[in-house]
Structures are given as C-alpha cells and as structure tokens.
Specification:
Length: 250
C-alpha cells in the first residue's frame, strides 16, 4: 500500500513483505494448533508467507492486500507470478483488495493481521482497518494481531543520516524511495483493538513481537460502512456512521 506524507513523501510498503521461507516457527506452530473453521481472512497477506499454514485450518480463505501487491509480478514459492494468478484457480482461496473485501457482505469466523499495523504510518488508517476487520467478522469471531514492539536493528537504523522520526517509528529515505518502520507497544495494540470494538482475549510476547487474540462481541454492531480510497499515491479509510446513529445524533 502507498501512503502520502506531507507534500512529497510517499511510503510504499509492498516490499516489506517476506516470503514463506522467512516465516516464524512460533507463529506456524500456533496456527497449526487452531481448531478448523469455515472461513478466515488474512488481512495484509503480503507474499503469502502464512497462506499455506492458514489454509489448512479453514474451508475458505480470503487474502486481502493492496491492488499493487495483488497484481505486481513477483516470486511466490519459487514461481514468477502474481498473487491473483497464483490463487486464481482455487475454489476456496480468493485474493481481494481492501475495497472488495469491504464491499461484499461475507463475514468470517477468524481473521489474521500479521505484521501489518506496524508498517502503516497513519494512526487513522490503523484504526480504520481494525474497525473494518471487526465489521467483517461474525459475532464471537476471533482475530490474531501480530505486531513488532521491539527491534534492536531499529535502534541502530534510526540514527542513520537518511532517517527521521515519524509517528511511532521513523522514515528512511533510500534509493528505493521512502520506507516507514514502526513499533507498536503491546498496551497500545490492546488499546487500538478495544477502540475498534474488540475485546482482548490474550497477549503473548515472543522475540520482540506481540501476539494478541481479539474477539468480536455478541451484540453491539460497530461501524459497517467504510469510505475507502486507494490511489497510486495514498490509501485512506474512514468508517461511516450508520444511518440509525446519524439520525439519533441529530
Ligand atoms: C510486512 S508485510 C506483512 C505481510 C504478511 N502478513 C506477512 O506477515 O508476511 C505488510 C503487508 O501489509 C500490506 N498493507 C499495508 N497497508 C495495508 C492496508 N491499509 N490494507 C491492507 N494491506 C496493507 C502491505 O502491502 C504488505 O503486503
């Protein structure tokens, strides 16, 4: 996804995604122990690092990412392809942009959001996508959020001359353009998912990453309509008040 900062900085983060060969053994084990369910989504699926592990636990799987991530040519498991073509022939795995994911009525039993929130430089986008994930889960649905909260490389990198502090992290200017590196402390992650209407079931910390299981409540629907703008320069998402909230606010 691309994020515009100020007048002329554009952060692109599709290249932040790592291949399956660089997956976390801890996370793969955690996923393999999950009870099988009907439907799941992997929000910010990247280069399909955990797709095979997640697909074994679910009947249907929606892979959600930016248009650029889904359509660009890249190597996936040793094959030069695009994510759309890679999953194209499958009956139970689908690739969706955030806009497509938001606009169809399907709701899921379980969601995953792995190493996505910490690469997003905008606090309002972080809140918007967590609200969207909550809206796309069934009542009592669960979602695993994984975010980086500590990284010793970041401490060294942020003092380099081409880095400047920004939000909960820093921006780096390199030959490939600008990148954003952020850290989300576990308490901030818990605060964010609660603000989006989830309850927090558990948090485990392992090797600088926080693993947080969140659950959607039984009743009380949150925002269900979202205004989403994905352009070549920027991504924005905003929840829309429901019609009944709007009229009661008058
Ligand atoms: C660090 S990668 C993680 C990919 C994958 N979850 C993994 O762990 O390998 C971050 C991914 O989030 C995607 N991303 C960034 N902002 C997003 C947004 N607003 N909505 C959906 N995906 C987003 C990027 O395109 C990228 O594929």
């Amino acid at each position: 996804m691309w994020y515009k900062i100020g007048k002329d900085i554009i952060v692109r983060n599709e290249n932040a995604a790592k291949p399956e060969t660089q997956s976390s053994a801890y996370l793969k084990k955690l996923i393999s122990r999950l009870e099988p369910i009907h439907s799941s989504f992997d929000f910010g699926c990247g280069k399909l690092r955990y797709e095979r592990a997640i697909a074994k636990t679910t009947g249907e799987l929606a892979l959600v990412d930016s248009e650029v991530q889904l359509s660009r040519g890249q190597m996936i498991r040793g094959r030069s392809t695009t994510i759309r073509d890679y999953v194209g022939k499958s009956n139970h795995v689908h690739a969706l942009t955030v806009g497509q994911f938001a606009s169809h009525d399907r709701r899921y039993d379980r969601g995953f959001c792995i190493n996505v929130l910490s690469v997003i430089p905008s606090a309002s986008v972080r809140l918007g996508i967590v609200q969207l994930m909550r809206a796309k889960l069934k009542p009592n649905g669960t979602c695993l959020f994984v975010t980086l909260y500590r990284n010793s490389d970041f401490t060294r990198m942020q003092n380099l001359p081409n880095c400047q502090p920004y939000g909960n992290g820093f921006l780096m200017d390199s030959l490939r353009g600008h990148s954003f590196y952020g850290l989300i402390p576990p308490d901030d992650l818990a605060g964010l998912v609660k603000r989006a209407g989830f309850s927090v079931e558990s948090i485990v910390l392992d090797e600088g990453s926080a693993y947080l299981w969140a659950r959607t409540p039984d009743g009380r629907p949150g925002p269900i309509n979202f205004e989403i703008r994905e352009t070549a320069e920027n991504f924005q998402i905003r929840s829309q008040p429901s019609v009944s909230n709007r009229s009661s606010a008058r």
